[in-house]
């Protein structure tokens, strides 16, 4: 008989063999195997039940330092507009809440990764964003082949296809900023396809909010001023191991008088 150690679907757990470094939500249990989804990290996993430790859903330790602006009593601000397309509705909701907390207007659309390329052009035409995020879930499968082969990844090929479609809509990387990828994505392929920022240079997992951190930083930087790329990447969970990209100008208009 399998003893479930009081672990049930919906519980929050960590894995002992990974030093309890990541909080997961239990999706399902089959015999002694538990299927998991990262609460803050864009990651699916499975584990033997005896390797799990039940925890309360701890508050994330992420801290984002919003850039300073001029005297708000004298000036008014129009941050860049964000279209966030995500293959995961829970992570999308976290990001939308994060945008709202930071005073940036964002539209969110939940679309399965393989369908994004087919649906992105109508969305770009409808919402006319300054920044588009293309994300969801991904993974590098060593058994499928080399890291340099986009076919070795769960969704990198789908992300690259969506980026290329967006670049046909707007070629300029200054007029439309693209942030793309998820955990362990083929960074080089996504940059080559036309993304301004992409994951994952070291094929590591990324935090659910990492793409949103980059987007907010650009949206709240004054238009035509280059972002501090090193500083922005350092604010993400895993720094330049998780996300990289090109120096990009800010997209916020500043007006006077308020």
Which fold name fills CATH's third level, the topology of the largest domain? Rossmann fold
Using the 3D structure, state the CATH architecture of the largest domain. 3-Layer(aba) Sandwich
C-alpha Rg (nearest Å): 19 Å
CATH structural class of the largest domain? Alpha Beta
Order of helices and strands: EEEEEEEHEHEHEHEHHEE
Regions with pLDDT < 50 over 5+ consecutive residues?
none
CATH superfamily of the largest domain: Cobalamin-binding domain
Largest sheet: 6 strands, mixed
Strand order of the largest sheet: 8-7-9-10-11-12
Count of individual beta strands = 13
Beginning-to-end CA distance, first to last residue: 69 Å
Helix-residue proportion? 10-25%
Tally of contiguous helical segments: 6
Short description:
The chain is built from six helices and 13 strands. It has helices spanning 89-101, 116-127, 156-169, 187-193, 210-219, 229-234, and strands spanning 12-15, 24-30, 33-38, 44-48, 52-55, 76-78, 82-86, 106-110, 131-135, 177-180, 197-198, 244-245, 253-255.
Overview of the molecule:
- The protein has 258 residues and is an alpha/beta fold.
- The protein folds into 2 domains: 44 residues; 180 residues, Rossmann fold, CATH 3.40.50.280.
- Helices cover 24% and strands 21% of the residues.
- A 6-stranded mixed β-sheet has the order 8-7-9-10-11-12, with helices on both faces.
- Helix 1 links the parallel strand 7 and strand 8.
- Helix 3 packs parallel to helix 4.
- The longest helix is centred in the middle third of the chain and has 14 residues.
- The model has no long low-confidence stretch (mean pLDDT 91).
């Amino acid at each position: 008989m399998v003893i479930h150690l009081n672990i049930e679907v919906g519980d929050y757990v960590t894995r002992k063999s990974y030093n309890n470094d990541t909080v997961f939500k239990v999706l399902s249990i089959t015999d002694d195997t538990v299927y998991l989804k990262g609460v803050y990290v864009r990651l699916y996993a499975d584990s033997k039940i005896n390797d799990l430790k039940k925890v309360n859903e701890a508050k994330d330790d992420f801290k984002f330092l919003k850039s300073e602006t001029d005297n708000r009593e004298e000036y008014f601000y129009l941050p860049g507009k964000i279209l966030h397309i995500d293959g995961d509705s829970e992570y999308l909701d976290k990001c939308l809440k994060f945008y709202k907390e930071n005073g940036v207007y964002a539209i969110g659309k939940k679309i399965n990764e393989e369908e994004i390329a087919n649906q992105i052009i109508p969305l770009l035409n409808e919402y006319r964003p300054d920044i588009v995020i293309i994300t969801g879930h991904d993974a590098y499968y060593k058994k499928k082949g080399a890291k340099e082969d986009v076919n070795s990844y769960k969704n990198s090929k789908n992300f690259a296809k969506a980026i290329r479609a967006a670049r046909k809509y707007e070629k300029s990387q200054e007029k439309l900023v693209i942030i793309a990828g998820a955990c362990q994505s083929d960074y080089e392929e996504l940059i080559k396809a036309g993304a301004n920022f992409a994951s994952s240079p070291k094929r590591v997992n990324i935090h659910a909010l990492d793409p949103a951190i980059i987007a907010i930083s650009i949206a709240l930087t004054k238009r035509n001023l280059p972002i501090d790329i090193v500083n922005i990447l350092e604010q993400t969970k895993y720094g330049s191991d998780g996300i990289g990209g090109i120096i990009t100008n800010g997209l916020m208009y500043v007006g006077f008088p308020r």
